[in-house]
Structure formats: C-alpha cells, structure tokens
Design a protein that fits this description.
- Helix content is about 35%, strand content about 20%.
- The longest helix is centred in the C-terminal third of the chain and has 19 residues.
- Strand 1, helix 1 and strand 2 form a beta-alpha-beta unit.
- The protein has a six-stranded parallel sheet with strand order 3-2-1-4-5-6, sandwiched between helices. Strands 7-8 form a two-stranded antiparallel sheet.
- It is an alpha/beta fold and about 220 residues long.
- Helix 1 runs parallel beside helix 8 and helix 4 crosses helix 7.
- The chain has one domain: Flavin prenyltransferase-like (Rossmann fold, 3-Layer(aba) Sandwich).
C-alpha cells in the first residue's frame, strides 16, 4: 500500500509530464472533477488529461462539457458514444485500446459502487470499463478512489471487490469519513482532490525510480 503521509517529499515532487485518463462515474463526487484535474496539473505541469465519464457521470458535469472539456480543465473528453462512432470497419481505431496505449496512468475517481462491482467482475459495458478490462498492469499504473454511501461501503460485497482490484494491481486511494451528501455520517466519501493528486504523483514517482538503472560497483 502506498503511504502518502509517510513521505514528506511527495508534496514537493513535481513531474514534468504524464498522459492521464481520469474516469468519473455516477457519484455526486464527480462534481469535484475540475478540482481533481487542476490539482493534477499543478503537480504535473505538462499533464495531458483525457476525461472519460460514464453516462451517469455526465449528470454531475457541466451541460456543455462534451463540447467544451476545458470547462473542467480537461484536455479532451471521450464518452461511450465515441467508442462506437469512431469504428465503422476493419482498420478503424478501437478507442479503448488506443486510449490504453496513450495513457501512462488510469485514475478512476470517483469510483462508485456500480463501477466497482463491474470492474471487479470483469464487465466491460461502457468505454471506461472497457479501458479498465484492457489495462496492462505489467507496464501501466491504475488507481481508484471509492465513493459511495456508508452502508454501501460497509456492505459485505464491497471489501472483496476492493481486494480484487488491489490484487490485480490497482492502487486504492482510501475513502474518508465525513457527513455525506445524503446527510449520513460515516466512511464512503471520496478522498479530497489534493490527496488524489498526491497518490497519482507518488505512484508515478515510485514507478520512475523503479525503472531508473542502478549503478554497478
């Protein structure tokens, strides 16, 4: 597990560039999308962020975000519709594969209970879950920030689903305890955007250090 609080240098570490897929889902925490992206770009000045919302996530984003991704500071956006309109025959691009090849890191924040269940069971019925199903954990990073009601978080099925993702190679950005939008108090709230950026940068930093050649004696 990545321990952000134990690394006092992570907040001072700045990457020059990275290609980031930010997947957002049908959680009210999607209203923080712009804050997540701005925090990522503050820490990674040359970051290119592709926003991939599920159909239900669009409910929590600006009405014109598909035509104007800059409204949430994204560099580009792809929706489920693009997956099908870009392909008409053999040789045409397969969007979820092309995005996987392009990206250095996949961040699903927020990951709602529905998407958690889908991804942990291998379902691939929209653009975001197709990207997750095609992800290459051997060479690329993937992180997720759960967000759901406390009783959904405490449901017996949730723990095993989270453990499955972590076993595959996903890094969990733990949810936090607070008063939720439904006025319940408890765990299940998405981590703050700054924390999400910390986890992404820490993960990329660790991957960069692991790839750095060691000097021989």
């Amino acid at each position: 597990m990545i321990e952000i609080m134990a690394d006092n240098n992570v907040k001072d570490f700045i990457l020059e560039e990275a290609n980031v897929i930010l997947g957002v889902t049908g959680s009210v925490a999607t209203i923080k999308t712009r804050n997540i992206i701005s925090n990522l770009k503050e820490r990674i000045p040359e970051a290119s962020v592709c926003l991939v919302p599920t159909e239900k996530a669009l409910h929590f984003l600006p009405d014109d975000v598909v035509k104007h991704p800059e409204a949430v500071e994204a560099d580009k956006i792809h929706t489920d519709k693009d997956e099908w309109t870009l392909w008409a025959g053999r040789g045409d691009p397969v969007l979820h594969i092309d995005l996987r090849k392009w990206a250095d890191v996949l961040v699903i924040a927020p990951m709602d209970a529905n998407t958690l269940a889908k991804v942990s069971n291998g379902l691939a019925d929209n653009l975001l879950t197709c990207i997750a199903r095609a992800w290459d954990f051997r060479s690329k990073l993937a992180l997720f920030a759960p967000a759901m009601n406390t009783m959904m978080w405490e449901h017996p099925v949730t723990g095993p689903q989270v453990d499955t993702l972590k076993k595959w190679g996903f890094v969990e950005i733990p949810c936090v305890e607070k008063v939720l939008m439904c006025n319940d108090k408890g765990f299940g709230a998405m981590a703050e955007p700054e924390t999400i950026a910390d986890y992404v940068v820490k993960s990329l930093k660790d991957r960069s250090n692991a790839k750095r050649p060691r000097l021989s004696n």
